[in-house]
Amino acid sequence: MQQETRRIAALHEHSRGQIFGIGRGVMGMRTDAAYWLIGPGQVLWLPPYLCHTARSHGAVRGWSLFIDQARSTMLSAQPFLVRGTPLLIAQAERLSHCASDQSWSDSLTRLAESFWDEFLSLPRASVSLPFPTDGRLRRVADALSENPADTREQQDWAIEASMSVRSFVRHFGAETGMPFTAWRQRLRILNAQERLARGEAVTSVALDVGYESPGAFAAIFRKITGHSPAAYMKMCRSSEKGS
Fold first, then answer.
1. Which of 33, 71, 73, 111 is the most buried (most CB within 10 A)?
2. 116 and 139 together in one domain
3. pLDDT tens digit sequence for 131-162
4. What is the DSSP letter of 239?
5. Rounded to 10 degrees, what is the CA torsion of 47, 49, 50, 52?
6. Nearest-5° Cα angle at 58, 53 to 64
7. Can you give the pTM of this predicted structure?
């Protein structure tokens, strides 16, 4: 899988499960329920028949494997992320170059089984941005997705949703699993990661996603991602061996 420019894949689904990893760049995946951002070294599981859209942010290199329905039932019915090990990535890259309809040798079959065992052994991380299903709350979430820098407070969004502040806070937390303020912060950082992956300047990104200063943005960015904005940009541009 290699894309040199930004690309958007319209809403679609697969009859088989899909495991794909990113070696360079960043790719976003959106379902009706949540949004995932997959960066270098990360691997995403996508179940069969799950409608989704995908978007690459700048140049992307990676790999993709389709998993038959029988094996797919062994995994979660919801997407999840894992951190790829060097062994898993090397196995996946070799397997991804093999046509699905070719006759596999015994050694290739053993490689596939080894990849599967390695993948199953990795700890799963549900690092995503969940979206509420309530129509009133969904309008708020969609509006903020379009403009993460919107500075309106909880009480303003409660009015927008035609709810009391108390009901807004309670229902938003129940549907997303996090407080509204934490949800908005994660949304802003995900949006910033996309922009940084495209090579946009840190200062402009910080202001565009709603932070008053690059310093405040950098502190929150490091807290959530574990990297400084500059280090994250460098990581996205760096190509892993074989990707």
1. 111
2. no
3. 999 999 999 999 999 999 999 999 999 999 99
4. P
5. 120
6. 55
7. 0.81
